[in-house]
């Protein structure tokens, strides 16, 4: 399915988001199209009250400032209100399971619950719950981070079908949910690393559920006609100096944009001149996270 030919219907196939793999391809496109519409309205300073009267609880058992700040801003800018339950508010749910908490919040008039890193048992409790839930994970496998990446890729290249995405780094244990989401939406994904840091066996099968993923040790081959380039320097970073995002690398491909969810290894993983330069989509992606999160809460917490 081509996102540029997709006609949004404002309907989702799921009641909750516990993982990006829960979403149908059409669900992803519903979120991205609404995010684009919301961004366009806010860029011309249109005041939005589309979420007026809605209350969202953000419940984090450990500190996660970026999650809290981005969702609070996202919801407040469209007229909603947030209720933050911090780790210091553990007395609120002492002795209660997540299903109890969800029912209490629902009875208070809360419209949706944002949580992070739940146990499998807690996820199972909430799947049949009356209160809609957006469940987030750490790092690159978090649904809102993956969707913000997809939105930025679409915005930067004008397409997802046929969009060329190159990742440089360590892929012994790749984020399967992230890569599968990109391939599922039509992107052509290339992973570039030293041969022994490329996925194989079960790991390769896990990331190839919706199509082939190209593996190479050649940076020139990976980046040569890429639309989007990212770096994934997890562990083994002393072996990845040849897989850095440098000025020289981007001179080989004048159209490519650099994307990263942050944090990065400054000066080694990526040159600051790339990170803060005109080839970077890093901080555009950070801004796009707000619009994606607005779309998520509007579609699920209506």
Outline the fold blueprint:
Elements: H1 25-43, E1 55-59, H2 65-76, E2 81-85, H3 98-107, E3 112-116, H4 120-127, E4 133-136, H5 143-157, E5 164-169, H6 176-184, E6 188-192, H7 201-206, E7 214-216, H8 219-223, E8 228-232, H9 247-251, E9 257-258, H10 272-275, H11 282-300
Parallel strand pairs: 1-2, 1-3, 3-4, 5-6, 5-8, 6-7, 8-9
Helix pairs in contact: 1-5, 1-11, 2-11, 5-11
Commentary on this structure:
The protein has 302 residues and is an alpha/beta fold. The protein contains 11 helices and 9 strands. It folds into 2 domains: 153 residues, Rossmann fold, CATH 3.40.50.1370; 141 residues, Rossmann fold, CATH 3.40.50.1370. The strands form 2 sheets. It has a 5-stranded parallel β-sheet. The chain has a 4-stranded parallel β-sheet with strand order 2-1-3-4, with helices on both faces. The longest helix is centred in the N-terminal third of the chain and has 19 residues. The mean pLDDT is 94.
Provide a concise account of the structure shown:
The chain has eleven helices and nine strands. By secondary structure, it is an alpha/beta fold.
Q: How much of the sequence is in beta strands?
A: 5-15%
Q: Considering DSSP H and I runs of 4 or more, what fraction of the residues is helical?
A: 25-40%
CATH architecture of the largest domain: 3-Layer(aba) Sandwich
Question: According to CATH, what is the class of the largest domain?
Answer: Alpha Beta
Mean pLDDT equals 94
From the alpha carbons, calculate the radius of gyration and give it in angstroms. Answer: 20 Å
């Amino acid at each position: 399915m081509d996102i540029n030919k997709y006609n949004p219907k404002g309907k989702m196939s799921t009641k909750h988001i516990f993982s990006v793999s829960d979403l149908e391809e059409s669900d992803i496109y519903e979120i991205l199209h609404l995010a684009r519409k919301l961004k366009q309205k806010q860029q011309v300073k249109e005041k939005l009250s589309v979420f007026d009267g809605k209350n969202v609880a953000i419940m984090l058992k450990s500190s996660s400032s970026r999650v809290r700040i981005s969702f609070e801003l996202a919801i407040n800018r469209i007229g909603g209100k947030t209720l933050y339950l911090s780790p210091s508010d553990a007395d609120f749910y002492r002795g209660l399971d997540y299903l109890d908490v969800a029912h209490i919040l629902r009875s208070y008039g809360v419209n949706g619950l944002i949580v992070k890193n739940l146990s499998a048992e807690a996820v199972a409790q909430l799947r049949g719950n009356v209160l809609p839930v957006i469940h987030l994970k750490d790092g690159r496998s978090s649904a809102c981070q993956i969707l913000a990446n997809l939105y930025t890729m679409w915005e930067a290249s004008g397409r997802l079908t046929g969009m060329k995405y190159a990742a440089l780094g360590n892929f012994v244990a790749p984020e399967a949910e992230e890569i599968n989401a990109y391939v599922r939406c039509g992107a052509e994904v290339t992973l570039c690393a030293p041969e022994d840091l490329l996925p194989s066996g079960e790991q390769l099968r896990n990331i190839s559920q919706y199509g082939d993923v190209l593996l190479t040790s050649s940076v020139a081959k990976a980046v040569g006609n890429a639309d989007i380039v990212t770096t994934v320097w997890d562990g083994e970073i002393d072996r990845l100096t040849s897989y850095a995002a440098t000025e020289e690398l981007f001179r080989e491909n004048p159209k490519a944009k650099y994307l990263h969810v942050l944090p990065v290894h400054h000066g080694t993983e990526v040159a600051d001149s790339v990170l803060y330069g005109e080839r970077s989509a890093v901080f555009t992606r950070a801004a796009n996270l707000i619009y994606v999160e607005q779309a998520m809460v509007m579609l699920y917490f209506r």
